[in-house]
């Protein structure tokens, strides 16, 4: 009985499955997708174009085409969904398209899209005359076109006036066509000037602004004209340009305008009567009179100073006062300023000559721990260590050297290197310069004591005596009876002499003649000079050995 019931139940269950299956089959409709020409939505819809990676892909798009049967596709871009003015980005036979950062940015630049502004850009693909759907990218482009100076033009001239020092002398304005009101980054505009025709080789930055206009006073512009190589009371032409600088996560991007050339006439800059150095080396004591520069009377001041590493200093025109102090222009290394200046910094310990030139409103720092001679006498061998000068560290260097007639030489701070070489000024005889120098010339053959004085930026060539005599109070200043020194070697003489404490004397190269007599330097203790000399004073009473060494330019009384 139970078996019979189970069989009946299984029969009904089977019939139920059959009816259900039939009902499902009657209602199931299997369809395939309609043929379509579809541009696929990208996974990323925001495109930031990185100028530092111009060859990287800016975007890649792909599409399906089951309709047109085309073998060539045109990719178009527009700034509106109607594609009123479509821009062709490229063509392809594939069903995908990639464009580099540089190429896409250039295409965007043909529109009125502003840089650093998130802008909607629409794209579609066209097969023949059949367009696909469009997709949307939010794009931020970088600028390519440089600023354009709109005022003044090349006809502008200005005569700068001391009487109107604080008033505006020049206003520059420019247009930056790629930057809009909604641009989301700050643009720094740097204005540069340079002597016309120099291709901005020594450009001076005259100011920075985030606006598209810049003004400068008579006084400030006058200083920059002088610093750029202009002469007072002479009309000179100067080139001006504007740099647009952006600092972003991608790095620094600079665009430079075309130049304008204008005529400017500067007035003479006031040159101080004196100049003093003040800094870490003297505890920032602005009342230290020992820190006075040498004034050559032509606007150039020089001073030799020993510095420690990382020392800083500046200059003051009046000892004991910080008023009108001078320092370095932060925007133009090597130039001096009175307002907005920074301290001048020393990076390496050593002895230096500091030169301040008010004719060019500039300064130079040159290391002078050592000095070497190089010239015709040694075959211009700049690595000849025997050519080293003697010095006591006071900025004066001396060396004995034999020259042929018409020999030439110059000076090197580092043996084996031509860098930073010194020679004679082309315009001022016996003056030392590092830039635009000429060789030092020896007219007459002979053996000379060559003296280089970096304190005064001068040199001298004095023929070394072959004999030497002492004349002074010990022999009643009778030059005919002056006792002779013993010549130890070339340029080195000694004499044993009885002295009393009040004795004074000097040295003669020829007995019986006062010509070319030598004595003690008034500026440098223990050194000998031939002009404007002092008598040598006795150190006391007794018998002393007097030594005169023309190799070192010194005398000793021991």
TrEMBL record:
Chain ranges of the SusE outer membrane protein domain: 27-125, 147-243
Sequence ranges assigned to domain Outer membrane protein SusF/SusE-like C-terminal in this UniProt record: 274-363, 370-460, 467-556
Signal peptide: 1-21
Superkingdom as given in the UniProt entry: Bacteria
Keywords, sorted A to Z: Signal
Keyword DNA damage included in the entry's annotation: no
Pfam families found in the cross-reference section: SusE, SusF_SusE
GO MF entries: starch binding
GO cellular component, one term: outer membrane
Transmembrane domains' residue ranges: none
Protein name: Uncharacterized protein DUF5019
Organism: Mariniflexile fucanivorans
């Amino acid at each position: 009985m139970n078996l019979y019931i189970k069989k009946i139940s299984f029969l009904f269950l089977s019939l139920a499955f059959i009816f259900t299956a039939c009902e499902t089959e009657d209602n199931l409709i299997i369809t395939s997708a309609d043929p379509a020409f579809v541009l696929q939505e990208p996974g990323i819809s925001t495109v930031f174009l990185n100028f530092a990676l111009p060859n990287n892909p800016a975007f890649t798009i792909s599409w399906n085409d089951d309709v047109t049967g085309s073998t060539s596709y045109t990719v178009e871009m527009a700034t509106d969904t109607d594609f009123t003015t479509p821009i062709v980005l490229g063509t392809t036979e594939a069903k995908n398209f990639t464009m580099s950062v540089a190429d896409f940015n250039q295409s965007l630049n043909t529109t009125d899209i502003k840089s650093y502004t998130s802008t909607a850009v629409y794209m579609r693909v066209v097969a023949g005359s059949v367009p696909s759907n469009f997709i949307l990218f939010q794009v931020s482009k970088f600028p390519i076109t440089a600023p354009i100076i709109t005022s003044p033009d090349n006809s502008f001239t200005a005569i700068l006036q001391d009487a109107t020092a604080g008033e505006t002398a020049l206003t520059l304005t420019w247009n930056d066509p790629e930057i809009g009101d909604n641009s989301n980054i700050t643009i720094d505009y740097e204005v540069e000037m340079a002597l016309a025709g120099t291709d901005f080789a020594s450009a001076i930055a005259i100011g920075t602004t985030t606006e598209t206009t810049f003004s400068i006073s008579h006084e400030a512009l006058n200083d920059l004209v002088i610093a750029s190589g202009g002469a007072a009371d002479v009309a000179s032409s100067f080139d001006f340009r504007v740099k647009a600088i952006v600092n972003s996560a991608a790095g620094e991007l600079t665009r430079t305008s075309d130049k304008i050339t204008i005529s400017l006439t500067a007035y003479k800059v006031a040159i101080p009567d004196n100049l003093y150095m003040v800094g870490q080396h003297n505890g920032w004591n602005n009342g230290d009179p020992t820190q006075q520069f040498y004034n050559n009377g032509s606007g150039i001041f020089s001073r030799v100073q020993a510095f420690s590493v990382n020392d800083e200093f500046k200059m003051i025109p009046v000892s004991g006062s910080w008023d009108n102090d001078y320092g370095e222009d932060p925007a133009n290394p090597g130039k001096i300023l009175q307002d907005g200046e920074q301290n001048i910094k020393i990076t390496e310990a050593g002895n230096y000559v500091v030169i301040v030139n008010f004719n060019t409103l500039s300064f130079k720092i040159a290391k002078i721990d050592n000095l070497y001679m190089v010239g015709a006498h040694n075959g211009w061998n700049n690595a000849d260590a025997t050519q080293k000068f003697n010095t006591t560290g006071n900025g004066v260097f001396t060396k004995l050297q034999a020259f042929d007639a018409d020999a030439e030489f110059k000076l090197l701070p580092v043996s084996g290197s031509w860098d930073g070489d010194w020679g004679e000024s082309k315009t001022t005889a016996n003056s030392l310069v590092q830039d635009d120098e000429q060789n030092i010339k020896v007219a007459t053959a002979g053996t000379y004591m060559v003296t280089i004085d970096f304190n005064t930026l001068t040199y001298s060539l004095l023929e070394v005596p072959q004999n030497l005599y002492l004349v002074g109070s010990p022999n009643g200043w009778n030059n005919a009876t002056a006792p002779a020194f013993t010549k130890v070697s070339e340029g080195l003489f000694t004499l044993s002499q009885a002295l009393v404490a009040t004795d004074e004397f000097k040295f003669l190269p020829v007995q019986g003649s006062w010509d070319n007599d030598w004595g003690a330097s008034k500026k440098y203790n223990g050194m000998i000079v031939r002009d404007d000399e002092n008598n040598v004073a006795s150190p006391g009473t007794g018998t002393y050995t007097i030594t005169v060494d023309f190799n070192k330019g010194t005398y000793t009384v021991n």
